[in-house]
Amino acid sequence: KGPADSHEFKAETKKLLDIVAKSLYSEKEVFIRELISNSSDALEKLRYLQTTHSDIVDSGAPLEIHLATDDSKKTFTIQDTGIGMTSDEMVENLGTIAKSGSKAFLESLGEASNADVKSQMIGQFGVGFYSSFMLMFTLSLINPILNLINGHQTEAEGVQRGTKIVIHLKGDCYDFAKEDIIKDVVKKYSNFVGVPIYLNGKKINIVQALWMMDPKDITDDMHEEFYRFIGNVYDKPRYHFMYKTDAPLNIRALFYVPEYKPTMFDLSRETDVSVNLYSRKVMILSKADHILPKWLRFLKGVVDSEDIPLNLSRELLQDSALIRKLRQVLTNRILKFFLDQSKKDEEKYMKFYQDYGLFFREGIVTQPEQEQREDIAKLLRFESSKCPRGQKVSLEEYASRMKAGARDIYYLSAPSRELAETSPYLESLVKKDIEVLFCFEPYDELVLMNLGQFNKKFLKSIENEIASEGKESEKVDDNDPDSLKQDDVDNLITWIKGILGNKAHKVKITKRLASHPCIVTVEEMGSARHFLRTTFAERS
Ligand code: ADP
Ligand code: MG
């Protein structure tokens, strides 16, 4: 037991630990995250003891983590000025699988005093340390410590407070002796750990985890910097949205909508969700595609939940009830956020809708629950027969203007406002003072058809309505002096059928038209649309 004491596991133990580590961690690089998290915990414990004890060793030593790479010796070293371990603790905590000294530490503190230090503590499962077994050849725990508080001080006189671990890398892991590689991995996983991390003497992490802060304390500049960092982009956010809750599960989330318009890449469904999942400021998964539905992939941001185990793999994430709950809560909150924004600053919202509204349409077509689809539908905007050109209404506004007892919301698909307004389909409804929404993009019509209902009202295409009205021809009113007689009607229909032959499936009379003499409708449009919808859904 000297300052440079090192401990060897038995060969078979090592083998077992290697298997454990491989089953828990899909990527080798996470050992850096785990070692840093342990150092961070050791530093937090020390920070806590500083508040309760006055006799801390090296009390002036700053709370820091130092990493070092040695490419010629093929080593990776981590050293912290935390609480350290006695030799016994070392054997106990590191030599026993699923033994967490951190958890025991918190338990020893009792409920009252530990709220703050508890919220900072990362480790709890006692398996993180074993991730190093995937890549080391030997491992030295130098000055296995020490003497924080009087009485423990005997073990390594004159050695600096804390823990130092030197990993001698295996042949296929030599990359981790390279500074650039380590730097990237630290940035990826441990950038927001609450203590400074130095790599070969240079500080490499940003310690401000904005999503954990009070929104009041965050300036626009801080948001901008943070957004650029996590989004890997160079513009500004147009919206930011922070959300925090402790029930039904712990969530701290921060999302941004970019100022730039979505690119083809952003629009592609191949593109991953660009939100990273953290637990206690340590990254667990980048591009965590199950914590948000795919159609929200335009958001950049961070979700942190201390309820999520650190060693969660992508596969586990996929079918975890916890993640489903998380996704549901977040999606609802995000929808509410956009709805609020649309009321707060309509002009800004419409600009956003112009750029990003396509994602909402995708959401409606791809989201399975009707309730959530209708929540997304609240964010849609349409021109309508009762609004001046260029002005748009929401489905809620439309519904609020409906006459008492009316059950249908009507829409009309047309390539432009001119064509919509002169459409023969429109006039019969306008005559009855019924508002009609205009769909200028074919996908808008698909979306409304797919939505089916909104607020218990039925969404109806007026084109479809006219095409499918009464299987029989309407009857002629013999008392109407302006109307053709039944004989004339029959002759006319026979004549038209003769001219058109099998170009027309059916010829019939209607009273719906006012100024247009006739109209061509597509009876099978329903199945044509169905076909379009399934191809759309398949792509998605
Ligand atoms: P966990 O962090 O979940 O407790 P680990 O396997 O990562 O599990 O670590 C096991 C224990 O070893 C920790 O709980 C802690 O008591 C101890 N430990 C690990 N690294 C350090 C360190 N750098 N300084 C002090 N104690 C440490
Ligand atoms: Mg740990």
UniProtKB/TrEMBL annotation:
Keywords: ATP-binding, Chaperone, Nucleotide-binding. It comes from the Eukaryota. Belongs to the heat shock protein 90 family. This is Uncharacterized protein.
